[in-house]
Amino acid sequence: MATKVYMEALSPTMEEGRIVKWLKQEEESVMDGDVLAEVETDKAIMELQARGEGMLRKVLASEGDTVEVGTVIGVIAAADEDIGEILATVGATGRERAADTADATDRAPAGPETTEPAVTAPSGPAPASPLPSGRLKSSPLARRLAKERQIDLRAIQGTGPGGRVVKRDVESAVPGPRHVPPMAVAAHEDVPLSQIRKTIANRLSQSIGPVPHFFLTSEIDMERTAEAREALNSVPDAPRVSYNDIIIKVVAQALRQHPECNAWWQDDYIRYFNDVHISVAVSVPEGLITPVLRNAHLKSLREIAAEGRELAQRARERKLRPEEYTGGTFSISNLGMFDIDQFTAVINPPEAGILAVGSIADRPVVADGAMTVRKRLRVTMSCDHRVIDGATGARFLQTVKRMLENPLAIVW
Amino acid sequence: MANNFDVIVLGGGPAGYVCAIRSAQLGLKTAVVERDKLGGVCVNVGCIPSKALLHSAYVANLVKHDARTLGINVADVSLDFGAAIKHSRVVSDQNSKGVAFLMKKHDVTVVAGVGQLLPDKKVRVGSDTYTAKKAVVVATGSRVKGLPEIGLEINKTTVISTDEALFLGRAPESVAIVGAGAVGMEFADIFNAFGSRVTLIEVLPRILPLEDEECSAALARVYKKRKIDILAGAIIKHVTVTDSKVVLDVALGGKDQTLEVEQVLMAAGRGLNVQNIGLEDVGVELAETGFVAVDANLQTTASGYYCIGDIAGPPMLAHKGSREGIFVAEHIAGMKPHPIKYDNIPSVTYCHPEVASIGLSEEQCKEKKLDYVVGKFPLMANGRARASRETDGFVKILRDAKYSEILGAHIVASHASELIHELAVARENENTVEEVDLTVHAHPTLSEAVAEAALDSLGRVIHS
User: Fold this and answer.
1) What's the mean pLDDT in A228-250?
2) Mean pLDDT lowest for which of A58-72, A349-363, B192-206, B357-371?
3) How buried is A188 (Cβ within 10 angstroms: 0-12 exposed, 13-18 middle, 19+ buried)?
4) CA quadruple B329, B331, B336, B339: dihedral positive or negative?
5) CA A331 to CA A281: how far, in whole Å?
6) Minimal-distance CA residue of chain B relative to A161
């Protein structure tokens, strides 16, 4: 049976993809799971796998082409199979003619429709079969659940009669891209919004935009952290520890003490996390990506140093998997290496906070009534006021400051 | 070898014989071992003959109470319980013969006698040993039981079970029915229609204790109107059984009362036929509940031995057993049968009006802290029900507040047993109340009440 090759959503937010390179050529034989092409997404260069076997009979998008997710970009079929009919339905653009444009809540979508990009689950196992091109069998209840949870039914393997997608399939499916995949979601508690929280949220959003930021800056004495770092780095054969590694560790520890800052704004409730996953902003040639250091509160400095380096390296090579840059609970952005004294960072929603880290510089300070020169660091925390109030953020920042000024606190 | 089969089924009731037919359909050489009549309890001393008697009871009530209003004057109505019993026997025999015919038609060998399980998928019947190549399926069912611990051992004269009640020559002057589940409710209806003074005794706080509370209340009202005494939440403290009567001391709400009846009908639970069939000899273990321990494919703890029907676990219903029979046959044949949805098995009591339900009761929704909405439509507002003077009852649908999933449905109506299947199909296919409403229902029908209840749950009921 012929299998259409779709441009799949290879990242949670991908809406279109650029074909970097076809790794299989027309008339070349293809096994299920073979890498067909390299596709540049909004985040990375990803591999597009074959979901059928036979021969790559037709390539419908050339290298360099950018096509929407859900577009048919090729056809896999047996060598002698007639694919004329498929090519006729696909048309020149690769967009299939929608057979049925009825509301998805009322009827099963007949074939991949053009109204919504076909998006596969971003993480977890890949769909076991090609995205079905015929009539999709699903129960009305499954369709409602899927719509609510923004899950694409075509990406789900149905277990009902004749492969029908039923409630349990949707419930066990990985939620779709507009929600963060559960694999990447830390243990958490969802707290309904109190009236006062709702009012704060509404009024502040009206005032400043969808994410009402406010900023808290603190100057931190880094002398003792510098000493500690030097001591650690004098251990032979150990990975070098950067200031940023120490800051990640301290922030993670501090978030455990201030879980009210380790949260996601979820529109009608706030999700407080028990675990700390730190999104670390990494600059890449095309922009910015935030690999996530999972369970940073549980990791030693040495582990954070090694893992952070590895993630950053792959981020720059654009080889991160989607689950490696989603699911963070708090972000850190460090521009210290660019000699930025202090700055404000923009929150990465749905996270509620981001810490902007400037450079560590020798600055004159007054201590014990005398002027001395000490290593100082300015950090600025951006807070989503719907989640974090001024004093809440301040208390968290105070803990960060105290820990950095007395880094032994890390091992408390 | 004449005694070699692919599948041997122990028990020819609704679980066993259906399993045999499905096995035969799938090309398996199949035998059924039955110690009595094919069709089991259901066909011979259960579902089928009791439905015949309930129809007699229905017509009796119709003639007595409604005929004149309906324009039919019937003089000198007299009732003949013996004749009703005779009719029910004819029906049972027809059905049992029908099963025998089906066995022949599908080339299933019927072995008459008591089967004994032996290791290595063998079954002994009398002096013969039969061997199953693929599997032995145990479907020995259940039997009536008394409550000897409170002095109500079945003596077949004054303390009887349905096994005797279905063969009585006349209806007793007075009868106490112990247990107000489906069986108790049905026989209360039958005996009441044939003139017996009926007292229903239920230890739980209400009749039909497993149904939605509103169904229990509706039936309690109807039964009281028919002068059936209901003692719910009653504890039988002392029993005196003689040759001609039974005296029961019953405590109800702190007060004791004495009840003297001609007969007591035991309708409080059934005993499982798990003894003396060799289960332990082949390594088939029982679960703590007393049922045979089975896995999701209804395989027992002994490889090659399956178990279906009443002894495989609740609900102890013929249609559940039949479905398990089909499932197991397909599983043995190497197919991947669709898993049985045990939470979507309809439950029906065939008294008048009938009570039928599927899924969760409102009490269960509350217990599970589900966010639900109730839709309810009274038959009083249904034209078809009024036309046939059967306005007792309602359709009640419980739907999930957010997704409109049908969590449960409860019907009290003259044909509730037939009406429930629309909602069973809906639930099986995960249709929500909205699909039920969107389906055009013929007018005038009782089924319109189902659609209206669905609409009511959405706040859009038309005729109420």
Assistant:
1) 89
2) A58-72
3) middle
4) positive
5) 7
6) B338
Three-class SS string for B162-222?
HHHHCCCCCCCCEEEEECCCHHHHHHHHHHHHCCCEEEEEECCCCCCCCCCHHHHHHHHHH
Chain-chain contact of B405 with A148 (C-beta, under 8 angstroms): no
At position A223, the amino acid (one-letter code) is E
**What is the dihedral sign for C-alpha B198, B201, B204, B208?**
negative
Amino acid letter for position B291: F
pLDDT digits (tens, 9 = 90+) for A64-75: 888 888 888 998
A148 in contact with chain B, both atoms CB, cutoff 8 A: yes
Structure tokens at B270: 């059934």
Chain A CB contacts of B403 below 8 Å: 141, 144-145, 148
From B427's Cα to the closest Cα of chain A, the distance in A is 10
Strand blocks (E) in A368-404: 370-384
Amino acid at A118: A
Distances, alpha carbon B463 to alpha carbons A370, B169, B383, in Å: 89, 47, 10
Integer Cα distance of B222 and B209 in angstroms:
16
Annotated active-site residue B331? The verdict is no
A147 touching B (Cβ < 8 Å): no
Provide residues of B within 8 Å CB-CB of chain A.
338, 402-405, 429-432, 434-435
* Token pair listed for B338: 């669709």
What mean pLDDT do residues A360-385 have? 92
Q: Which domains does chain B have, with CATH numbers?
A: 4-143+271-342 (3.50.50.60), 148-268 (3.50.50.60), 353-457 (3.30.390.30)
Cα B406 from Cα B373, distance rounded (Å): 10
The helix/strand/coil state of B116 is strand
CB contact (8 A) between residue B430 and residue A142: yes
Q: From chain A, pick out residues whose CB is under 8 angstroms from the CB of B434.
A: 140
- Give the span between the Cα atoms of B247 and B377, in whole angstroms: 43
Chain A segment 163-222 residues within 8 A of B by beta carbon are 166-167
Rounded to a whole number, what is the distance in Å from the CA of A141 to chain B's nearest CA? 5
Distance from the A138 Cα atom to the nearest Cα atom in chain B, whole angstroms: 9
pLDDT for residue A185: 59
- Which chain B residues are Cβ-neighbours of A158 within 8 angstroms? none
Question: Which has more pLDDT, B372 or A156?
Answer: B372
Q: Is the peptide bond before A407 cis (omega within 30 degrees of 0)?
A: no
Contact B432 A144 (CB under 8 A): yes
pLDDT at A186: 67
The nearest CA of chain B is from the CA of A375 a distance in Å of: 57
- What is this structure's pTM? 0.61
**Phi, psi values for residue B296, rounded to 5°:** -65, -25
Beta strands per DSSP E along A87-195: 188-192
Say whether the peptide bond before residue A350 is cis (omega within 30 degrees of 0). Answer: yes
Q: Is B98 helix (H, G, I), strand (E, B) or coil?
A: helix
Q: Give backbone dihedrals phi and psi of A213, rounded to 5 degrees, phi first.
A: -85, 150
Q: Which residues of A203-237 are buried (b: 16+ CB within 10 A; e: fewer)?
A: ebeeeeeebbbbebebebbbeebbebbeebeeeee
Q: Which residue, among B422, B404, B338, has the nearest Cα to A140 in the 3D structure?
A: B404
Q: What is the dihedral of CA B352, B358, B360, B362, to 10 degrees?
A: -30
Cβ distance B201 to B211 under 8 Å? no
Give the separation between CA B416 and CA B165, rounded to whole angstroms.
Answer: 25
CA distance B114 to B254: 48
Residue B117 in tokens:
């399980």
A-chain residues near B431 (CB < 8 A): 139-141
Domains of chain A, CATH where assigned: 3-182 (2.40.50.100), 184-411 (3.30.559.10)
* Residues in chain A closer than 8 A to B429 (CB atoms): 139-140
